[in-house]
Amino acid sequence: MVDFSFTGEQEELRRVLKDFSRSELLPYYTRWDRQGTFPWETWKKMGSLGITGLRVPAEYGGSEVDCVTAGIAAEEIGRGDFNMTYAVMLNALIAEILAKHASEELKRDWLPPLASGDKIIGIAITEPGAGSDAAGMRTKAERRGDAYLISGEKSGISMATVADAFIVFARTGAEPGARGVSAFLVPADLPGVERSRYEDMGNVPIGRGSLYFDKVEIPAASLIGEENHGFYQVMNGFDLSRILIGLQCLGAARQTLEETIDHVKTRHAFGQPLAKFEGVTFPIVTHFTQMELVRWQCYRGLWLRDQGKPHTTEAAMCKWLGPKVAEETIHQCLLLNGHYGYTKEMPIEQRLRDVIGLEIGDGTAQIQQIVIARELLGKEFRPY
């Protein structure tokens, strides 16, 4: 039997989050971008609603929802404020990494404040010379007795200027590639940690930037999982975050499309509503159809994850096509809104800028296609 319906509890959550997005997020979406500030009060309000702790185990203060439910949250929050969806997407990734691989001490210290929205944890993998290619990672963690000394630079890090701590990936072994890479929980206020903010075209509130580590000393207990196996241990978590990113982007695009439909119904040209013209309605129908196809692939991928079934290919498809289809949809909507859509008086241009950022983050389209080809053709035919 195939069942495409959501449960009553999931539908109720969607209703609650839709109302929250419309009343608490959408009216302020452009404000944080213009001010270049992070809305701490809004983040903590989301924490009080349980949004920041959706995938955190119940024993550490979270609600421990299934992946499909987390997807509903990503989609609905994305409709109100694209950047606040990091409370769902990023926190889900961090929660899984810590819950599955961290020591009990790290879990007790960091999962409860992550769930409540009182603390933010970022993830630091990318470097100036190493993004998708882990072999280029140069940040090192040297063991010194009961401690590690971390030195190196991370770049393009979401929440770089905002987070209270980071899961930092560093080389601990001499093995090539991803082998020899370990993960550590590093508080941002430790001596030797510095950070700088980028002037990005989008995703402004999340404070993306670079991190610098100058012999930052952390206790050995800050190691997450096994030494030299950190990269492999967390890769499964990216199958979740990549699908959530797809829904995050589609949520922003769906909101834009609905606003545009209202616009073309009321705006007139040649004595008729724009919605009377097929040159207007056909692009709307095309993008709506594409979004629906990708949207249901996202929920299928999340369902597979909940069932413990393989879903790496599906996750890569969602991460490749979700941002792409969303960007194309929002761009078309901007054009259909004319010069008004091109102004900063409307949120369309910001959604376009924001979505483009996630055509890059968590793996580019090319990387997703490599993943799909590897799963489809076999690992022996991968290019590296």
How is the topology of this model organized?
Layout: H1 8-25, H2 29-35, H3 40-48, H4 67-80, H5 86-101, H6 104-116, E1 121-124, E2 140-144, E3 147-157, E4 165-171, E5 181-187, E6 193-197, E7 209-219, E8 223-224, H7 230-266, E9 268-269, E10 272-273, H8 278-306, H9 312-336, H10 338-342, H11 348-357, H12 365-377
Helix pairs in contact: 1-4, 4-5, 4-7, 5-6, 5-7, 7-8, 7-9, 8-9, 9-11, 9-12
The fourth-level CATH homologous superfamily of the largest domain is Butyryl-CoA Dehydrogenase, subunit A, domain 3
**What overall geometry do the principal axes of the alpha carbons give?**
globular
Order of helices and strands: HHHHHHEEEEEEEEHEEHHHHH
- Provide the CATH top-level class of the largest domain: Mainly Alpha
Tell me what you see in this structure.
- It is a single chain.
- With 384 residues, the protein is of the alpha+beta class.
- It has 3 domains: 8-119, Butyryl-Coa Dehydrogenase, subunit A, domain 1; 122-228, Butyryl-CoA Dehydrogenase, subunit A, domain 2 (Beta Barrel); 231-381, Butyryl-CoA Dehydrogenase, subunit A, domain 3 (Up-down Bundle), CATH 1.20.140.
- It contains 12 helices and 10 strands.
- The strands form 3 sheets. The protein has a 4-stranded mixed beta sheet with strand order 1-4-5-8, covered by helices on one side.
- Helix 1 packs parallel to helix 4, helix 7 packs parallel to helix 9 (312-336) and helix 8 (278-306) packs antiparallel against helix 9 (312-336).
- The model has no long low-confidence stretch (mean pLDDT 95).
